[in-house]
Design brief:
Length: 322
């Protein structure tokens, strides 16, 4: 068997394990969700070895999606760190066998401290399963390891169950992108979820605008002076009626058209695209990419006739969200 064949076999084994587990989800999962939502404390995830690594990821995912959670190493727990657990907390204990010594040793203290226990195990008859308030079955028919020794399909199943819990809790809590941004202020992801059009737009005297009757030689000066490669064209009341880009001018001049003494209203493209100032800057970027344009005029709301700003592709790129 080639390395490629082996890789495909492993992925198929693990995919099959997840498919079978998905069909096995029942009321126990709902009880686990209700237990966590109804708790007055945090979620503490614990596991040993590979299960511990999975538990760290589950705790991290929950914490970033609106469910206060952290990981407790069971070996550290039996040497004092059980003091992190409080009445009202929910402990998620992960052990494929359900008989991991370090996990079983913390269970009496978990109960005495007044925390509730969700067991995530592949053994419904285990001591962990019997001690739990809610048991989640993450058993698999076989490991992807050909020796049947290294945790592979079983850790994938536990990780997927943790993701299922985190996402179900997210949905139940009505967690939104804006909430997610609070926990992810750094990097491109955070900027995508926090930066709004109004944070990057040019406003006031920096907005390139001309009147409908303005001659194109004057409009060209505005396009050049403002440095955004575009000017808006407004009527006498200030309502935006069209746009003229430097690209429009170049193409017209290349064709030999005498446009410099024509009015802006004769050259402009009507019905310019617009965006609200409260929209995410990432939404402006998406519009620009889809319509192959480099700027958008910004409005206070959908009914506003006059623009309050303009946002350019370069401003978005410099912000680091793309």
């Amino acid at each position: 068997m080639t390395a490629i064949d082996e890789a495909r076999r492993v992925i198929r084994v693990e995919a099959q394990a997840l498919s079978v587990m998905a069909e096995r989800i029942d009321g126990s999962f709902e009880r686990a969700i209700d237990l966590i939502l109804g708790s007055s404390g945090r979620v503490i995830v614990s596991g040993m070895g590979k299960s511990g690594l999975v538990g760290q990821k589950i705790a991290s995912t929950m914490a970033s999606t609106g469910t206060p959670a952290f990981f407790l190493h069971p070996a550290e727990g039996i040497h004092g760190d059980l003091g992190m657990i409080m009445k009202g907390d929910v402990v998620i204990a992960i052990s494929n066998s359900g008989e991991t010594e370090e996990i079983l040793r913390i269970l009496p203290s978990v109960k005495r401290l007044g925390a509730r226990l969700v067991a995530m195990s592949g053994n419904p008859a285990s001591n962990l399963a019997r001690t739990s308030d809610v048991f989640l079955d993450v058993s698999v028919l076989e490991e992807a390891c050909p020796l049947g020794l290294a945790p592979t399909a079983s850790t994938t199943a536990a990780l997927a169950m943790g993701d299922a819990l985190a996402v179900a809790l997210l949905v139940k809590r009505g967690f939104k992108a804006e909430d997610f941004a609070i926990f992810h202020p750094g990097g491109a992801l955070g900027k995508k979820l926090i930066l709004r059009v109004e944070d990057l737009m040019h406003s006031g005297g920096d907005i390139p605008l001309v009147k409908e009757e303005t001659l194109m030689k004057e409009a060209l000066f505005v396009i050049t002076a403002k440095g955004l490669g575009v000017t808006g064209v407004c009527d006498a009341s200030g309502a935006l009626k069209g746009v003229i880009t430097d690209g429009d001018l170049r193409r017209s001049l290349e064709k030999g058209f005498d446009i410099l003494n024509r009015r802006a209203s004769e050259i402009m493209k009507q019905g310019p695209l617009r965006i609200r100032r409260s929209e995410l800057a990432a939404a402006a970027l998406q519009i620009m990419e889809q319509r192959a344009i480099t700027s958008l005029f910004v409005f206070e709301n959908d009914q506003s006739p006059a623009p309050c700003g303009i946002i350019h592709l370069h401003d978005i790129l410099k912000s680091g969200i793309a």
